[in-house]
């Protein structure tokens, strides 16, 4: 694949924005974890700590009217599209000022006005749905592109294969991005998958080029995503990208992740592998003043603190919301 | 006025909406040049072309996922699931995704789509191609469910389903495909959530649906010859459910019988019986009686399938016994 125009990825301001985005995702998720421990966040939740470069890098390559289809591990992908922290924190806390007024929760973050067309908690389901949005863009000639994020575990469910074939035969403007964090849930993906590269090794079965990228390098992710999105926008059809990464924590709130060797976790958390640390080092090597980075980090911390308090200040959703919006008429009546 | 078959009415109903609205697309397996395995979509491909009438692979999740994604971004797709039994392989998209996403997103999204499917038995296809699944769809909050019984209703309810801003599961009784009926000329647009009273009687009320409608009407004629005069309601729409018509007609006769093709347990008639028991109890002169397929997988052999599905004879005999006990 080749890019068609000069990439902004070499621009320092662009890189600083990409750094800010990754720091914001990291610190949002860290705060979300604290809020679980303090019992402000109920139910379950799945964090992207360690995987920020993918959400941030891909979002930077998207046009505002492009569409994101995320998974239950979707806080980062939602925020990366420009959704404010307060409604996302509030949604996690089940407040009326939540992104969906508390009706969806952590696993279903959606903000149509930001192109976040849902976070889906059934593995693989959103891949064919993203195909449908891409089909709609193709039919209406809008040049929009749908991007679907999913984990390595998804490559072994039927919907993945149906969607890949469907996108290929209809040449749909959709980009599939596999975040391969090496573990499906609690089981190492390689133990339950017939091929070494769970997504890339399947690409050829759908007439697609195998694409592997270092998912902990936001610049590399951005470049690959930009190429694939431009290709889709130009009518070149779908792409399947496998981005290798690692989640620092367990699968979900309930999982301490003890099934992973300590050395492996330490390696991926190290400054050489961790996407945020790596990017910080890269910026310093490019001559960016450390004070500039510290300022970005302080700004993000202030944003996280303010959003946390604003979310906590939200009321519990009222009874008026319970029976609202089952139907397009706003109600829930099923009989006369 | 023209006489059309139920299967011809499907193509006419879809064409009526596709001519009116360019956002209406149609997709499914073998629906294009082949005209559908039941020949229900003959002529659509020729009239609207391969961009609006699209053949798909055998990928039910992809078909309904595509419909959902298209609907959430402003189109009004009609998707075909060839046999309603195949809902089992894409039920996640129907029940978890399409049905819930409007509510979960606090109304950020709408899903104006129609899923049409060949439903039910009578064609000796065996247990995996003959199920009546209207009760599967009915029990999922967020889905509307209609079951037309006549060519006219196929067209009118298709128009209502396509124009509705919510997802509609549109179940066609396969055994009715060759049946004929009078259809008025011009555009036909019906309303969801409206039952039709097809026969007025004074002794008992029969509520029924789809393939069971002609059988219930025939049974009513037999019963009338024996002195039992029945009202027959074609429920037509399970969600929304026209309970006012059912309650009114039940109260008028004092007896209610449901005739259902779905297997016994939690068939749609159970909900109807529960509503009547709660809201019209003191108007009843006897118990509500449900006439259903037994709680078994549907057998293939014609002799066995005929025993399983409610027949004209079984409907008439059951009502006769109940009215004389």
Structural topology:
The complex is a heterodimer of chains A (336) and B (325).
Chain A lengths: L11 H26 L14 H9 L6 E5 L3 H5 L5 H8 L23 E5 L5 H15 L5 E6 L6 H12 L4 E7 L19 H4 L7 E4 L3 H16 L5 E6 L17 H8 L5 H11 L4 H23 L24
Parallel strand pairs in A: 1-2, 1-3, 3-4, 4-6, 5-6
Helix pairs in contact in A: 1-2, 1-10, 1-11, 2-8, 4-11, 5-6
Chain B lengths: L1 E4 H15 L5 E3 L15 H9 E3 L4 H13 L5 E6 L7 H14 L9 E6 L14 H5 L5 E3 L4 H13 L4 E6 L6 E4 L12 E4 L4 E5 L3 H14 L4 E5 L2 E3 L3 H11 L2 E8 L4 H12 L9 E5 L8 H7 L3 H12 L2
Parallel strand pairs in B: 2-3, 2-4, 4-5, 5-7, 6-7, 10-11, 10-13, 13-14
Antiparallel strand pairs in B: 1-8, 6-12, 9-11
Helix pairs in contact in B: 1-6, 3-4, 7-11, 8-9
Question: How would you characterize this protein structure?
Answer:
The complex is a heterodimer of chains A (336) and B (325). Chain A is of the alpha/beta class and 336 residues long. Chain A has a single domain, classed as 3-Layer(aba) Sandwich (Rossmann fold). Chain A is built from eleven helices and six strands. Chain A has helices at 12-37, 52-60, 75-79, 85-92, 126-140, 158-169, 200-203, 218-233, 262-269, 275-285, 290-312, and strands at 67-71, 116-120, 146-151, 174-180, 211-214, 239-244. In chain A, strands 2-1-3-4-6-5 form a six-stranded parallel sheet, with helices on both faces. In chain A, helix 4 crosses helix 11 and helix 5 packs parallel to helix 6. The mean pLDDT of chain A is 96. Chain B is α/β, with parallel strands linked by helices and 325 residues long. Chain B has two domains: 2-183, 3-Layer(aba) Sandwich (Rossmann fold); 196-323, Rossmann fold. In chain B, strand 6, helix 6 and strand 7 form a beta-alpha-beta unit. In chain B, strands 3-2-4-5-7-6-12 form a seven-stranded mixed sheet, with helices on both faces. In chain B, strands 9-11-10-13-14 form a five-stranded mixed sheet, sandwiched between helices. A two-stranded antiparallel ribbon of chain B has the order 1-8. Classes of the chains: A alpha/beta (336), B alpha/beta (325). At the A-B interface, strand 2, helix 5 and helix 6 of A face helix 3 and helix 4 of B.
